[in-house]
Amino acid sequence: MLYRTENPHGGEVYDHPGVIDFSANINPLGTPPAVLEAVAASLPFLSQYPDPYCRELTAAIAQYEGVPQSQILCGNGAAELIFSLCQALRPKKALVPVPSFSEYRSALEAVGCETVQYPLAREKGFLLDETFLSALEGFDGELLMLCNPNNPTGQVIQKPLMERILSLCIQKGIFLFIDECFLDLTEGGQALSMKERLGTTDNLLLLKAFTKSFGMAGLRLGYCLSGNSRLLERMGKTSQAWNVSIPAQLAGVAALKEQAFLSRAREIIHSQRPLMAAALEKMGCTVIPSRVNFLLFYSEKELRVPLLDRGFQIRSCANYPGLGPGWYRIAVKLPEQNKGLLDAMEEILNG
Q1: Distances in Å between the alpha carbon of 226 and those of 2, 149, 241, 244?
Q2: pTM higher than 0.85, yes or no?
């Protein structure tokens, strides 16, 4: 748990009970009913320890992802696996484009690693493009951490560029970490995954999670994929044996069967996101193009506190390196919820 440390993330609803939370990028449909049933079915087993090898869960993930079971390591949320990777690799210097997920830097700092930030340009919509290759060519560290799609920008790295990045990393002996946690909620997301390269190099690890896709943030369940079995073994030794609870394991198995649920969520996201972006732009906000279930935008007027007063919580992105005051991120939720938020913003910005 956090102790005397500020929480930099969204989803902090405990000081604001009853708000509609747009600050966390969770599936707009919430948690699948089958997952809730699996959690309820786990209750009689709470007196026993969880399976330390997550056998049933890794078998289900292997079938879902189309990878060998030996390439899978599960964790207590994706964040734990980020920290486990950094503890296993112990890099001295890592390269991280910014803005991006803050836990990368936290995990690197925890092992005394220097973080080299690569600033993504606002005038390019914070898109990582081919100009990044020259920076990577000159990088003299051991680890590159990428998020695809990127949080908080919603931008994606196209497959041909990612292939070039991986090839350059292999050539230079740089380990490539790719956070793919939002791919299941992304337009054409599966075509962007680098899964097919797992068996070709030891220099690659992909991060996935149930948090956003299946509305399971409170259960804490993530997994990573890598063809480097020695690395996965070292990562496993950085956490205690029973880090994935029985409710989380059973919920994960149930969730992976809910593909129709994911399809419905993607339909809502892909129809609602452009409507929300257009409404924000009409209000005078600068909106960054997104391919996923959230939008990053800039507003000259302060929004977070006035929206809290109206029952809506959004994510201030002022603490992200490369952003600052005026930048906000909102999730794409159900149509009536989105309309409520936009109506409240209209009142604040143009009322």
Answers
A1: 30, 19, 20, 19
A2: yes
